[in-house]
Specification:
Layout lengths: L1 H6 L1 H4 L2 H11 L11 E2 L8 E6 L2 E8 L2 E8 L1 H4 L2
Pfam family, one: YafQ_toxin
GO molecular function, one term: RNA endonuclease activity
Keywords: Toxin-antitoxin system
């Protein structure tokens, strides 16, 4: 995730990233505009949300921890 975050650094300097981060770290449901949903198949147990139309965050919530897994365009994170 660190490499993905560095690559997309400028995209993270937005109010949308702050809102997503706040919701995920405080166990608040994400607003519908982020299209948050559970993944299936090989990615079962993970979720994704769209911070921007082509900026996808893959993450996993386990008890009181949020693991950020991938960040990038849809084609990058699901390649």
């Amino acid at each position: 995730f660190k490499r993905d975050a560095k690559k997309n650094y400028l995209s993270l300097l937005t109010p949308a990233w702050g809102e997503v981060l706040n919701c995920l770290t405080n166990d608040i449901p994400l607003p519908a505009k982020y299209k948050d949903h559970a993944l299936t198949g090989n990615h079962k147990g993970f979720r994704d949300c769209h911070i921007k139309p082509d900026l996808v965050l893959i993450y996993r919530v386990q008890s009181d921890t949020v693991d950020f897994v991938r960040l990038g365009s849809h084609s990058e994170v699901f390649d």
